[in-house]
Amino acid sequence: MRYLVCIKQTPDTAELPKITPEEAASGKFSVNLVVNPWDELAIEAGLKLMETYGGVTGAITVGDEGAIDALRSALAMGCKDATLVKNVGADVSGVADLLAAAVKKDGDVGVVVTGQMTVDGNSGSLPVVLGRKLGWPVLTGVAKIVDLADDSITVERTVGQARLTVKTSLPAVVSVNKEIGEPRYPTFINIRKAARVKAPVLTADDLGVEVPAPVVHMTNFRKPPARDAKVQLFEGSPQEAAAALVDALLAEKVL
Fold first, then answer.
1. What is the domain partition of the chain in residue ranges?
2. What is the dotted CATH code of the domain comprising 2-207?
3. Is 49 strand, coil or helix?
């Protein structure tokens, strides 16, 4: 069976405060770009599927030529192949159109794995939209893959504080969360191998897709105002400090 992990190149979360509203609006960043952290979890899930049940795990991304660096990171972690779908400017629906066409072109994919969301868009809608474009069942909030058969997959989903065990037919789209497991570190040998890989590049024309104009437009990019935080220490015995804390919370209308 073949597993395909959808990844995205996003700004390093450590450098998000450095991004200006103008950069966010243009999509051209001066900060370091990495694999979206949620998608690293998806890569880990895809690699575990390959190691546990056999088959091959590949990675795919939609972006510009610079996104090949994200694919190389996936290869360095252990993915066996990687594909770039070259496109800039598509919204979630357009990206899902391209990914769905690429999955169908691949022809042998049993499980598509995605992260829960991205650190730039944060919508979490891609796996659902992609599943709808493919006509496949979608499992979101997946914390554990329990079993995989030729025609079905069983997972544990987190729903609030509860866990649900769910089984669905294959092929399917699986969106994983942090509980799926800590992403592994790339090995030095794989890093060197990945640096020499020339990933296949597909375009919308190659896939026979006419990408629609974005229907979602972000018009107001701004940073949230700085918080006016203050620290107050309460002295005295534990009882006195607790009473003073409650008085302070009541004064601030927190309680």
1. 2-207
2. 3.40.50.620
3. helix
